[in-house]
Amino acid sequence: MLSERVVNEINQIQKRYLDARACLLPALYVVQREHGWISPDALEAVGDLLNVPKATVKGVSTFYSMFRHRPIGRHVIQLCTNVACMIMGAERLVDILRSRYGIEPNSTTDDGRFSLVIMECIGACGTAPAMLVDSDFYDNLTEENVIEILERYK
Ligand code: FES
């Protein structure tokens, strides 16, 4: 279930912790980074690897909203459409993404390249509109540069 690379990385992480349960968050992060989401099989595999009960692994992974439990695109676009971003044209950016990639909010492109999530303020109101692509932050978005930015993500 888990690749050799993921297993090795989790084993390395575990060496930094006295209690296996304490390294659940970084271990789950490694799995999600590798697969885009955390499947039930992956949850079980992490539990087996760390010798932590499956219920504990599941409890931790479902507590934090940063972990995803269904398949998602290779790249996640989190676009803010809250007040400042809306005033500065975020809704128009949603339309552009819809027509360029055929993607609706809270959905994934057919090729699995992008998932689009509409989010609340990400603290960049002064340079709105703003978005995250995976963990990369972009602000001062325009109709022109949003596609230019996204085309860097294959
Ligand atoms: S409203 Fe979009 S960053 Fe604040």
TrEMBL record:
Keyword Iron: yes
UniProt cross-references to InterPro entries, sorted A to Z: NuoE-like, NuoE_dom, NuoE_N, Thioredoxin-like_sf
Parts of the chain that traverse the membrane: none
Sequence positions that bind [2Fe-2S] cluster: C80, C85, C121, C125
UniProt name for this protein: NADH dehydrogenase subunit E
Single annotated GO MF: 2 iron, 2 sulfur cluster binding
Gene3D superfamilies in UniProt: Glutaredoxin, NADH-quinone oxidoreductase subunit E
Cofactor(s) essential for the protein: [2Fe-2S] cluster
Keywords assigned by UniProt, alphabetized: 2Fe-2S, Iron, Iron-sulfur, Metal-binding
Residues forming coiled coils: none
Pfam families tied to this protein: 2Fe-2S_thioredx (PF01257)
Highest taxon, organism lineage: Bacteria
Cofactor binding note of this UniProt entry: Binds 1 [2Fe-2S] cluster.
Signal peptide: none
Entry annotated with the keyword Metal-binding: yes
Record family assignment: Belongs to the complex I 24 kDa subunit family.
